[in-house]
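User: Can you predict the 3D structure for this chain?
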Amino acid sequence: MAESNKGNKNQEVAISRRVLGGEAPIVINEITDRCLYSGFFGTLDSVRMKKVNDAIMEVADRNDHDMMIIDLSNVEVIDSSVAANLKKLNKLLQLIGVEVIFCGFKPVVASSMISAGVELENIQVEKNLKRAIKYVYRKQGLQLVSLNK
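Assistant: Here is the predicted structure, written as structure tokens:
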């Protein structure tokens, strides 16, 4: 997508905004040709996680992506059951060749997960979406550069 801003220098934005799948409560977007993004919102429970897992696996299976960012910054609570579902989703995606990057754990969520004994071993976690995107770019040999000189 390229945008021109008259009056200011021309700027180009090279981010695909094509929605690849989803309906409320989940939307899955393409960040790069090889990376998907999904943000979770609200309260997660086992029933909702089943729907989310199914939707993500369907999109991951029918598209050629090798990375997926899952943003949890708008999730208020993650209990041990939901954490187990997130770990299961991570393993399922790994088995079909998709690396998962979780981001946006709020401190209170992280604290409650640790108190519940939830461990996220062998799972890539970044502080926020910005850092997750930088991680993806590094792994894919991409670089975000300013077009203004």
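Confidence is low (pLDDT under 50) at residues 1-24. The longest strand covers residues 67-75.
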